[in-house]
Amino acid sequence: MGVLASGAGTNLQALLDSVHGHEAVVVGVASDRADASALERAASAGVPTAVFALAEFPDRPARDAAIADWLTQRGAELVVLAGYMALLTSPFLSRFEQRVINVHPSLLPAFPGMRAIEQAIDYGVKIFGVTVHFVEDDGGVDTGPVLLQGAIELPDADDLMAVHERLRPLEHRLLPEAVRLIARGAVSRDPDNARRVLIGGT
Length: 202
Known about the structure:
single chain, 202 residues, alpha/beta, Rossmann fold, 2 domains, 7-stranded mixed β-sheet, two-stranded antiparallel ribbon, 6 helices, globular
């Protein structure tokens, strides 16, 4: 798998600590930011890294094509978005059709897009959660089929960072589990409902 990350890389670290070298192999980590700590985590694990800053390309499709080429050269069969903060363009998603997954800090379809936790706090929800979902070229943001979800009750939550810290363990458990399921061939689509993901044929 190839991993795209824009920030600290804690979800990347969870992958490196759990599935890397076992059920799957991280063949490369790319970022849109040269200062992303995720790059240091990858390098420490001996994983190749690359930076694809948008300013170095004519436009987003050109940048995404370069990322796709780099991942393909390294043999990536699955692309994992682990805190990657840039939207991927249609040509990229077409090259990795049904092979891109993302971890999002809400119980989708509630609170998609940016500021998901802030949206949830502002809405006054009592249950927060994490979703691992497929990323597809459907014109939406965080609208792909749900793979895994987990939730925790936080009835009095009002602090963004506190909620994020409580959600991190869920992210770090669910994202590697999603990779394990895909690596085992345990994930399929419901032939009667394209939006429904089946786990283990059930």
